[in-house]
Amino acid sequence: MRFLLGAILGGMMCTDMGGPVNKAAYAFGVGLLSTQTYGPMAAIMAAGMVPPLAMGLATMVARRKFDKAQQEGGKAALVLGLCFISEGAIPFAARDPMRVLPCCIVGGALTGAISMAIGAKLMAPHGGLFVLLIPGAITPVLGYLVAIIAGTLVAGLAYAFLKRPEVDAVAKAA
């Protein structure tokens, strides 16, 4: 049952990337920290990193489908994703919501489910992967990273496959 909670929280984190659904999931996780319940926060932060990391990955894998500005935005999204700033994916979602959002929600749900299934715990409410620098703040580290990588790969590769080439990018490639 833990994996189901993780999938729900992970999907919520990726639904509106910084909007009210995302913030409701985040507030739930932060509230549980005060009761020393650390599993949901791990799933929430891991899944919240997926959208920007996935968009960054997609811009690298399917470079020809993105114009130059989007490629640069993908680089910035990678950095924001590592910092647990989900909003790095908003420009991509605003431009192509029917493809970006489902990919990110599925990837985030997978990340959250894996995180909860392996019993990951996070004792900090923010910080992205930089929390790894605090000894014992994330456990188990390897499983937590696998969860983030799995969701990022699913979301990023799915979007790279589904993304239609930008007209400018196609014209320049010809």
UniProtKB/TrEMBL annotation:
The keyword Transmembrane helix is annotated on this UniProt entry: yes
Domain PTS EIIC type-2: 1-172
Record keywords: Cell membrane, Membrane, Phosphotransferase system, Sugar transport, Transmembrane, Transmembrane helix, Transport
Gene name as annotated: fruA_1
Protein name, UniProt field: PTS system fructose-specific transporter subunit IIBC
Keyword S-adenosyl-L-methionine: no
One GO-annotated biological process of the protein: phosphoenolpyruvate-dependent sugar phosphotransferase system
Major place of residence: membrane
Sequence intervals crossing the membrane: 43-62, 99-118, 130-162
Any one annotated GO CC term: plasma membrane
Sample GO molecular function, one term: protein-phosphocysteine-sugar phosphotransferase activity
Bilayer topology term: Multi-pass membrane protein
Cell compartment(s), UniProt: Cell inner membrane
